[in-house]
């Protein structure tokens, strides 16, 4: 199927024509709209992997999102809670950075900062058991998002390891995820996306 799709003809980007980049732009639109499907598929990779924790990584993400939802948080916040550990598979040494990069085009600067730094803030609960400084988060004490991130870890992230706790299924959160990721708020390519015809965006 992909073999029959139009392709640009250049061998080096400097040779690319407007027609080449129109082909690429049209392909990008369709690929970008499928992002929620790929995110959901990747989130499912966390299922069954406990890594020594009381629940598997997917359950932890779902519980974190469930707690945030039950506490009345808005959809964007809940989606951040759902995806905060999605980087565990490909970024075990910097999982928060992976999740934050994925979410950055679609969420507020405050929510992005919260996800990006949650790994340092959650360390308050266990870093000392690993010979690390549990107060590492204090370097951010004067940051406007300190309290927000501290609360996220205390109320939702750190509390989401209970096998007996109510955990809403992934299907419950899928519509939220699709709405939040429907269109970027900020991106290098946002202007190009915004100029795309509405019919193409909804295809």
TrEMBL record:
InterPro entries from the UniProt entry: HD_domain, OP_Dioxygenase
Stretches assigned to the HD domain: 57-118
UniProt xrefs under Pfam families: HD
Highest taxon in the source lineage: Bacteria
Protein name: HD domain-containing protein
């Amino acid at each position: 199927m992909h073999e029959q799709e139009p392709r640009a003809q250049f061998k080096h980007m400097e040779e690319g024509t407007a027609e080449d980049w129109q082909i690429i732009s049209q392909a990008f639109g369709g690929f970008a709209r499928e992002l929620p499907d790929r995110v959901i598929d990747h989130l499912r990779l966390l299922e069954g992997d406990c890594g020594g924790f009381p629940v598997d990584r997917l359950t932890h993400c779902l519980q974190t999102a469930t707690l945030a939802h039950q506490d009345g948080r808005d959809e964007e916040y809940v989606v951040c809670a759902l995806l905060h550990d999605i980087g565990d598979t490909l970024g075990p040494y910097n999982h928060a950075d992976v999740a934050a990069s994925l979410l950055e085009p679609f969420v507020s600067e405050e929510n992005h900062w919260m996800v990006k730094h949650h790994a340092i803030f959650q360390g308050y609960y266990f870093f000392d058991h690993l010979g690390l400084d549990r107060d590492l988060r204090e370097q951010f004490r004067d940051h406007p998002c300190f309290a927000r991130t501290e609360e996220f870890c205390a109320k939702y992230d750190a509390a989401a390891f209970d096998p007996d706790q109510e955990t809403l299924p992934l299907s419950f959160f899928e519509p939220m995820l699709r709405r939040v990721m429907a269109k970027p708020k900020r991106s290098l390519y946002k202007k190009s996306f915004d100029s795309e015809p509405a019919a193409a965006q909804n295809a």
